[in-house]
Amino acid sequence: MARRTSARLAKAKAKKVKLDKEDIYDDLEHDANFELTESEQEEEQPPPRKRQRTATKSPKRTPRKKQVRGKQGLLADLVNMPIDIFTEIASHLLPGDIINLARSNKFFRNLLMHRSAMHIWHGAMKNVKRLPACPEGMSEPYYLSLLFSKTCSMCGGAVRGEMDPMLLVRLCGPCRNANLTPLYPPSEFMNLLPYSHSIAPTKRRLASAYVLRADFQTLMDEWKERKLSVNKSALDAWIEEREEMVDKRREQAGVLAEFLGYREFERKVELVDIKAARRSEIKRRLTELGWTNEDMDISWGSVNRCIWDDLISQPKPLTDRSWTNILPKLTSILGANREGRLNAERDARQRARRARLLELVLGIKSKHYPALGFKVLYPVPSASLPTVNVSHQPPFPDLDSTLEWSIVKRLHETDATMPEMEANFEEHREEIEALIADWATRAQEHFVKLLGGGPEVQGDILRPTTIVCDDGSDPFFNFSDDLKRLLRADSLFYKTTTPSSIRQPLTYSAVFSDEGFAGSRMHPLLWTKSFRPSLDLDKFCLYREAQDVARALLADMAKPDASYLEMKGVGPNFVCGRCHVTDYLTWEQLIQHYLQQNQLCDAIQKTLSSLSDPGIIYNNVHDLVLDTDQPMVKYFSLGDSDDDTNDWSSRPQVCKLCEKLPGMREVSAFKPTMLRHLRDVHEITTPKVDKHYATKKMTRSDLFDMIHFDSDDSGNSDLSHWGCGCEYDTMFDDGELEYGHYDDDVDPGDVFDYDDDIPEYLFDSDEAENDWW
């Protein structure tokens, strides 16, 4: 029997505690009259004591201290405090503090929820800036709980969202689903019931406005009651009353929304201030530990920037405990940032030394290795062209080569100030100049040695014919014999690293300028770390085949001992005098053209015997020993109207015999040139149309290609007739006559602008119905 009684008492006690906990929210949120119920005024009856066990305990064992709650706990000082002192303290608290105190235990709940404590709530409300007055029909505790307590108005659960100023509730997710109902406009109840657009169930419907289900049900009950009444004036008065209530609620909601927005802004400002104070305190402590502002300046591109911000910009004050936890992480980040900053500063100082070192090296270049300038006349007297300025730049080591020397490398890598570096450079200037001179001498001797394997030069090494001197003296008088040999127009080399099929002849000047060893890379913007290897002289060899072609061309031009500078002065204005190719070529391209055509002819001769048409003849018009009255090379001239050049008023022709040769590209030219090709190459003196040659079928793109390019087989079709950008090109860029055209009255853009009777072969099959041009 005693056991049953004990069980009932325990169960009743648990139930009573649960009811007490629920009473807290009931008192704060639903007691609009601010009165206490009788159950709350009753004193809590303590449960009967349990019988003490008779078993003896060891006297040496210390009894466990009993945990005391309620009035004898942590709030004992406040409970035993005189009421006037407590009231004075409460007048300085915020509403949230009063709410938490009222929910702490029954004593403070009974004290603060009594009508006599209303002045405490009013005093707390005065401590909140811009707080609106309590709405009518709502108690101060409920109103303040609605604003400052993150609890649900229905169930008392935790809520993260803000209150709804129109419905005057703060609801959690389940309570929103249970207590909200949609109100679909247009509705006759829109002006009779407060509704909100900012609150919705967790699964939002199509409705944009929601009302409280209880308010809606109350409205419907009142509406039905008055609708059944025959008193229409009473219904109208009720509707007017409801509309006034809704208007007042809407006006009040605007004031509350403004207050909530102000509190949100104030909270953000408070968080900013808290973060700023935390950052300031952390930086102060780090400064005391020896870290500098530069160490604490974490750049945005750093991988540790986000971690750094998370540690120092938290919205909570810095405590000793949190400082102990974050200090190792901060130290790691600051150490990495300091190391990176020091490395960046070291690299910046090295770049500054590198730039200054470049200026000093360029000073040596301009003083001891200046470019040698010459004036060259155009070889055609009738052209009436002014002289062209050309220059020869002696070889000079590039940046990577100078950095391989221990002296320059030490100046570059030693972390010294600029004056110290300059002083060290001046101290070793003679040694650096000697290294540069030795490098230039070795480079020149290497190519002189390569020329020693070729045929010897008889008589004068250089005999210029178009280089002009003001005093009429020999422009190469002060040059050594080795340098004169290197500057000859027939001194040609090639790279062994390129395939023989695309091997390009290189002059002595082109070797160093193309590789960047003639000062072309000595520019401050190019003085950067490079992975390009230093100059490898062993990869250059004497190009004997190109040398033979050059000597044959020079002999044909009656300039056997001309210098490369004279050929450079002509520019891209050489034209082959033996074949149908009429491109304007440089000196190296002209030699390359003869080499390729000779290789092509050798390959064709090996396949002639296997052709189905044994009567095809293919003569090598580029043979160096060919006995003919045609010159090997011609020059471009503004007044040139040679019949062998492209006739702009005719249509291009195609060689039918060359089409039968395997591996032979299409040979197309205008009719005068095509007839000469058939006569010289195939020995056809009386060619027939459609048997030996035919008019070329052309598309629109072919027309443009024909105007701008010549369809040759030499692979040099990259030279445009519109000019090359050289000094001659800029001379005649006046809008009247483009450099690269013949001086006649034909506009190349209107060559095929026929008025009528356009042949059908000029059309594509899919373009016959469209305009031709």
From TrEMBL:
The record ties this protein, via InterPro entries, to: F-box_dom
Which residue intervals define the domain F-box in the entry? 75-124
Q: Where is this region: Disordered?
A: 31-71
Where is composition skewed (Basic residues) in this entry? 48-69
Identification of the protein by name = F-box domain-containing protein
Organism, scientific name: Rhizoctonia solani 123E
Taxonomy of the source species: Eukaryota, Fungi, Dikarya, Basidiomycota, Agaricomycotina
